[in-house]
Amino acid sequence: MDLSIIDQLLKLLEIPFSSILMIEISIIFLLLYIFLVYNEKRESKKVKVFLSAIIIFFISALIFYFSDDVEFVLTEIIKTIMNCFYFPNIIFYFSTVIISLIMIIYTMLSSKLTKFNKIITYTFTLLHLFLFTNFITYAIINKTNLTNTANIYQNDNMYIIVFFSQILFFIIIIYKAIYHFCYIRKEKLKNINESDIMFRK
After folding, report:
1. Secondary structure class of 99 (helix, strand, coil)
2. Which stretch of DSSP H or E encloses residue 17?
3. What totals of helices (H) and strands (E) does the chain contain, helices first?
């Protein structure tokens, strides 16, 4: 693909508006993000559980609505499981989506994470899941055969979605690694200081 990174980014921004279904999905994800961020001020556990249920219901409804197409896609993916060890790697892509889904639900239900950490996690995981939803929807609408990975390389829109999805996933993983490293060091310093104070007493 000969497009520059700027052209790819602009094209990525156009994809969510390429069909009515994708516009509806964009609105749902935007509303979900607003509710998640807003709820950080209220800190309502009921809302967190409700939003977790909404996310699971939305993904389940999408799978049910496109059950035949999803079954076809999954069948094609299983057939090529041993042939997808290079970028764009469909198996790895699906694995990252599962990780993002687990990560966002854990973040909503956890009371130990800071608000800033939660908002960062919501931002990147929702964007990642949003792009994956666009990827599947685009593949279904255009009846793209995922058996041949070359179909993704040759389709600018699908290639761009996978490309930016992987970037978002690696960003959130790097952020989480740095956050937990800093958190562990902070806790160690806190324990050392507390031990030092007790020793002095």
Report:
1. helix
2. none
3. 8, 0
Could you check whether the bond before residue 16 is cis, i.e. omega within 30 degrees of 0? Answer: no
Report which DSSP code applies to 19: S
Rounded to a whole number, what is the distance in angstroms from the first to the last CA of the chain? 68
Tally Cβ neighbours within 10 Å of residue 63: 14
The whole-number average pLDDT for the span 70-89 is 59
The confidence score (pLDDT) of residue 129 equals 92
Per-residue buried b or exposed e for 82-112, using 16+ beta carbons within 10 Å of the residue's own CB:
eebeeebbbebbbebbeebbebbbebbeeee
**Residue 130 pLDDT > 90:** yes
Q: Please tell me whether residue 28 adopts helix, strand or coil conformation.
A: helix
Amino acid identity at 163 = F
User: Which pLDDT belongs to residue 14?
Assistant: 87
Tokens of 128: 């990642």
Rounded to two decimals, what is the model's pTM? Answer: 0.62
How confident is the model over 80-124, as pLDDT tens digits?
Answer: 553 444 455 677 788 888 999 999 998 888 887 888 888 988 999
* Chain centroid to CA 101: 7
